[in-house]
Design a protein that fits this description.
The chain is of the alpha/beta class. It has a single domain (50-358), classed as Purple Acid Phosphatase, chain A, domain 2, CATH 3.60.21. 26% of the residues lie in helices and 26% in strands. The chain contains nine helices and 15 strands. Helix 7 (204-215) runs parallel beside helix 8 (237-249). It starts with a helix and ends in an 18-residue tail after the last strand. The relative contact order is 0.13.
């Protein structure tokens, strides 16, 4: 018995000193499969956000344009290019004639107001957003100015650079496109007095601050300016100073109008500046005033901007854009590319368009609590 107890004690002692890994693993119970944990695969990064913006210049629905509409209807003015404009996520234009049945009206002397029914031209074109920050927005007086908002609201068209409360005219408008919050501001910056309440102050330091605050309320900030000198084919010094200040403060894209002719594109700190997009629906004399373009801008977070400048021509029998014959198209392309090159911008001409590319800022995604630049 003593020998047996000694043997048993040895066996127990050996079991205690053996490492756990040396012990025999017990088999799983019949019918059960051992659970093996597998590390979760890392989530795929979201695809880069992107959107398409189509921008055009001045739209005026009075005077000679009205004559065409009365004779042939609203579709006549825009029908050739309407389907192409509507393809973009956001389509932008400068509306240079208030929509009103009341107020001062003297078309021969450039005091405009258009029949509110002509808003159909904008809806047929698929225009989503218009700038009202120009030197004609208050031509018919306060009541005509207020009627414009009513008719745009009823048509489902957003606006920027104007508001029922004049103190809110410079407020930010934010539209969403494919997950990107695209903010818009619009201003007039002319060297003669105008009634527009959204104006660039002479002191650009104040303007920089407003741009910087607005930039933090959206992913990308687009700033529209009614500026420059009529019929100049190049930007003046004030246009360049204002545009550069806006870019330095955070603007991702500048859209310009008022000269009634095309001016080139400058790439400044990776941001495109479209100094003048020319006339789009207007009744001016033949020549370069009635030769313009559709600006198709594609933005992607990992690619930046690609801009296709597609020439159009405004024949007198419709006062609106059509695609010109090849010879005229090529002449517009060559001329516009020359404007860009004088601003230091590299261009390509391919498939009937001038192509310009630019790196774009990375959206900040930041919000701000500063209430001095509210958004609509």
């Amino acid at each position: 018995m003593t020998a047996y107890l000694k043997s048993l004690s040895c066996v127990l002692a050996l079991a205690l000193v053996l490492p756990a890994g040396c012990r025999q693993q017990q088999p799983a119970a019949p019918g059960l499969t051992p659970v093996v944990s597998t590390p979760a695969a890392p989530a795929a990064p979201p695809p880069p956000r992107a959107f398409d913006l189509t921008a055009v210049g001045d739209i005026m629905l009075d005077r000679g344009v009205e004559r065409v509409i009365k004779q042939s209807g609203c579709a006549r003015v825009i029908e050739e290019v309407a389907s192409d404009l509507a393809k973009a996520d956001i389509t932008f234009a400068n509306l240079e004639s208030p929509l009103s049945t009341v107020g001062y009206h003297d078309p021969p002397n450039c005091a405009f107001r258009a029949n509110p029914e002509y808003v159909k031209v904008l809806t047929l074109a698929g225009i989503d957003l218009v700038s009202l920050a120009n030197n004609h927005c208050t031509d018919p007086g306060r009541e005509g100015y207020l009627q414009t908002f009513k008719h745009l609201d009823e048509a489902g068209i957003k606006y920027v650079g104007g508001a029922r409360n004049r103190a809110q005219a410079s407020w930010l408008r934010v539209l969403t496109a494919n997950g990107l919050r695209v903010g818009f501001l619009a201003f007039t910056d002319l060297d003669f007095p105008v009634g527009c309440p959204s104006r660039v102050p002479q002191d650009l330091s104040k303007h920089r601050k407003l741009i910087a605050v607005a930039k933090n309320k959206c992913d990308l900030l687009v700033v529209s300016y009614h500026w420059g000198q009529e019929y100049w084919e190049h930007p003046c010094d004030r246009q360049k100073q204002t545009a550069h200040a806006a870019v330095e403060a955070g603007a991702a894209l500048i859209l310009g109008h008022h000269p009634h002719v095309l001016e080139g594109i400058e790439i400044y700190q990776g941001r495109p500046i479209l100094y003048s997009m020319g006339n789009f629906i207007f009744d001016q004399r033949p020549g370069i005033r009635m030769e313009s373009a559709i600006f198709n801008l594609h933005y992607a977070e990992d690619e930046g901007w690609t801009i296709r400048v597609v020439p159009v021509h405004l024949p007198r029998d419709r006062m609106g854009p059509i695609y010109p014959p090849e010879a005229k198209r090529d002449a517009i392309l060559k001329r516009f590319a020359g404007y860009c090159q004088k601003l230091g911008t590299t261009t390509q001409i391919q498939d009937g368009a001038v192509i310009v590319t630019a790196a774009a800022p990375t959206p900040s995604g930041q919000e701000t609590t500063d209430a001095t630049v509210p958004s609509h």
